[in-house]
């Protein structure tokens, strides 16, 4: 009885950590894409300012 309880708890923790990790990875990818887009925008702005001078 105790053994099956421990197996169930372990399974629950594994499944929960999988979904938490999945959400964290989504957030990481979204944040990485936004930061690279922001850097490109800053670089384009610098290039435009240099051309206007």
Task: Please describe what this structure looks like.
Helices cover 96% and strands 0% of the residues. By secondary structure, the chain is mostly helical. The N and C termini lie far apart (78 Å). The mean pLDDT is 89.
Please provide a brief summary of the model.
This protein is mostly helical and 53 residues long. It is built from one helix and no strands.
Number of strands: 0
Share of helical residues? over 70%
Task: Tell me the span between the first and last alpha carbons.
Answer: 78 Å
Structural class: mainly alpha
Helix/strand order: H
Low-confidence stretches are none
Tell me about the largest β-sheet: none
Bin the strand percentage.
Answer: under 5%
What is the residue-averaged pLDDT?
89
Tally of contiguous helical segments? 1
Which radius of gyration do the C-alpha atoms yield? Answer: 23 Å
Topology:
Blueprint: H1 2-52
Keywords:
1 helix, 96% helix, 0% strand
């Amino acid at each position: 009885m105790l053994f099956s309880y421990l197996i169930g708890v372990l399974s629950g923790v594994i499944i929960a950590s999988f979904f938490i990790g999945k959400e964290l990875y989504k957030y990481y990818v979204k944040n990485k894409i936004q930061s690279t887009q922001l850097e490109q925008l800053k670089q384009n702005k610098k290039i435009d300012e240099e051309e206007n001078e």
